Amino acid sequence: MIELAESTPAQGPKIVVIGGGSGQPVILKGLKSYQADLTAIITVADDGGSSGTLRDYLNIIPPGDIRNVIAVLADVSSDLIDLFQYRFKKEDEMLAGHALGNLIIAAIAEKKQDIYGGVQQLCQLMQVDGHVYPVAKEPLVLHARFKDGSELSGEAEITAAHNAIDRIWVTPQADSANQVAQAPTAVVDAILAADEIVLGPGSLYTSILPNLVVPNVAAAMKMTRAKVTYIANIMTQKGETDGYSEADHVRVINEHLGAQVVDAVLMNTGVVPEDYIDWHRWNEVSHQVRFDPDQVRKEGAVPILGDFLALRENGAFHDGDLVAKLIMQIAGTPADDAGGE
């Protein structure tokens, strides 16, 4: 049984947040204000934008999601963080669209000839409060099989297809010496040692699952005694998850891992006002995710309900502070106290 505790252990729980995209930093920012041992595990299958360009030219893991997590967890001046996050203007020719932090990550990776070690060194320089681990030491290729039987490779192309996905998997790039995707030992160790593992929020098929389907990550997720909390998305993703409920998201995660791994689901009860969303700006979202706590229970998870909605910039987001508070309360319950309400 999962119950919300009033306090957490004095030394702070070990919390691992797995994902990518814009949702992961929101949750980490909220968690940063608590006493906790934080680890972020980040997808390396992104191949669009500045990250995709640097990935192609320099054959490194995409730096964008890593940059955003480092910026949130860094304990340096706001001026330095603003500089780290600065994105060159579109008229800046070859630098157009690149964030300075992406270039710094690329430079430190080249200098050390090791992207994983470079990220760890940069975390030290930025005085990161926690651990930042790319899920692999090399860029991975995301593959999708759609429900119509067709297949595509590449995160950007899969997202742009707006097609209903049946299954995804990842592989190393064609020029890799490895035949199977593999996470570093530190990633597996963090999952096995965690008190709580948080999935999301983020795109189900392109931010969360690309981490979980790495074979040794999948194995660790099935072995860990950590409580696994899924932060249900507020909006569906156009084409990919149209009509999905929170339970459908949980079912897909469990099916990809081959076991019921999700213990609790944070489910938003707030309603997005009609005509609030700027559909041109947020062109990947479709409709509000269907609310169905009974089906979540049937997937073996405890529904935890609350109004987690934060409306800003004509978009629907999670209230990171409120979600972080609940994550900490879940982490404070005994590890073997799961399975019901």
Automatic annotation (TrEMBL):
It comes from Weissella halotolerans DSM 20190. This is Putative gluconeogenesis factor. Keywords: Cytoplasm. Required for morphogenesis under gluconeogenic growth conditions. GO terms for cellular component: cytoplasm. Pfam families: CofD. Belongs to the gluconeogenesis factor family. HAMAP family: Gluconeogen_factor.
